[in-house]
Every structure is written in C-alpha cells, then in structure tokens.
Specification:
Helix content is 33%, strand content 19%. The chain has six helices and eight strands; from the N terminus they run ααβαβαβββαββαβ.
Length: 224
C-alpha cells in the first residue's frame, strides 16, 4: 500500500479488537514518531496496552471501545502547536494505515490526566490518536465539493491539475466532526490555506495541509 492508497482507504474507527499489535509494527511506528519529533520539536509518545485514558463517560458515549493503544500528541505551547500537531500526527496516522492498522483522532473524548504520557510544564497534550485493529475499517464520510473549499484570485486563471489533485486529497483528510472548515486560495502557483472556524480547526489545518502536499506535489507550488 502506498500513501495515496492509505489516504483513500483510511477512515476513523472507534471500536477495536483485543488483538495485540505485533512488535515489528510498534517498532516501525516508534521510528516514525522519532523522526517526526526530530523534524518538528514535538514530544509525540506511543502508549501501548493502557485503557484508562478511554475509561470515562465521554469516551463511552462516543462509542470508543477496547482502546488500549494510543499516540499522545504533546508539544511545547506556542501559537502554531495545534497546526504542527495535525501535520505530523497525520503522517503517523497514514503510517498506521500502511501497516494495516486503524486509527481515530481524539480531541475531547478522553481523560487527560489518565493519559500515560510525559507532559512538561511548558508543554501541552493537544489530543490523542487511538490505533489498533478495528472491528471494521470504518466508513467514508460525506464531504464538501471542490467549489466549497476553494477560491481563485484571478477569475481567468486556469486551474492546474496539481491544484485539483491537492484539493481532492485534502477533502479526504479527517477533520473534527467532519466539519471541513478550511479554504484554499489559488494565486498563480501560490496557495494559501485558512481555517474558517470550528472545534479543533487548527489541528485540522495541519492535517489538511499535509494531504494537500501529498496530492499536489510540493514541487508544483509555494505556500503563501
């Protein structure tokens, strides 16, 4: 499975099997996390065989079941923390998918104090990523149209294939409550991406940005 197939096939899963994840797959994920931490300055941590973070009322109401493996998205407090978390977290999510594992971004449905991760005084735990072998592979959510999430600065500007591909894969990105509250603006080969409100919207922005880069090809445009 390549990264494009991973994006196409990945859907959120909240109900997991008791099946253990193989050590080799955990090793690959830890290597990916190490690389992401080195590139981003984050303190992402993989937690294995631990259920207390998802033992609360909100997790149960949100139909999370048998979650015992998760990735704690931790980083130093800053204006750009949430977006950075989304960008690098999605790299890990897609690595999970390529390993045959299911995932779910979790923003508000876990007990923060029960998450078994290290959070220093100048750091913050933004969210978790549940992962494991799902009882199903999830289902595709209905998304917005290309026109709803794009704006072209010049009305007579042709829309190149790279931009269309980038938006296509961006619309396959997971967002909180499937809200897809983002807008791409095209100006020649310059692209800007802005969130338009909503819960966890800055985390969503990072996730969407990474998907767009995969689809468009970073060699074809510049971020504005």
């Amino acid at each position: 499975m390549d990264i494009f197939q991973a994006i196409e096939q990945r859907h959120s899963v909240r109900d997991y099997l008791e099946k253990e994840i193989e050590d080799e797959k955990i090793k690959i994920l830890n290597e990916k996390i190490k690389n992401c931490n080195e590139l981003s300055g984050l303190s992402i941590q993989l937690i294995r065989n631990e259920k207390s973070a998802f033992s609360g009322f909100f997790a149960k109401c949100s139909k999370f079941k048998n979650v015992k493996n998760y990735i704690a998205m931790v980083g130093k407090k800053s204006e750009y923390l949430d977006e950075t978390i989304g960008y690098f977290g999605q790299k890990i999510v897609l690595q999970c998918q390529m390993l045959g594992l299911n995932t779910c971004w979790v923003g508000l449905k876990f007990i923060t104090k029960n998450a078994k991760c290290i959070v220093k005084k100048d750091q913050k735990i933004v969210c978790l990523i549940a992962f494991g072998y799902g009882k199903t592979n999830g289902v595709k959510s209905k998304g917005k149209s290309f026109e709803k999430v794009t704006k072209v600065v010049k009305s007579n500007c042709s829309i190149d294939k790279w931009f269309k591909n980038g938006v296509y894969y961006a619309l396959l990105a997971p967002t909180a409550l499937n809200q897809q509250k983002f807008l791409f603006t095209l100006d020649g080969n310059f692209v800007s991406l802005n969130e338009t409100g909503g819960v966890m919207s800055k985390v969503d922005l990072g996730i969407v940005k990474y998907h767009f880069e995969i689809g468009a090809g970073v060699e074809n445009f510049n971020w504005k």
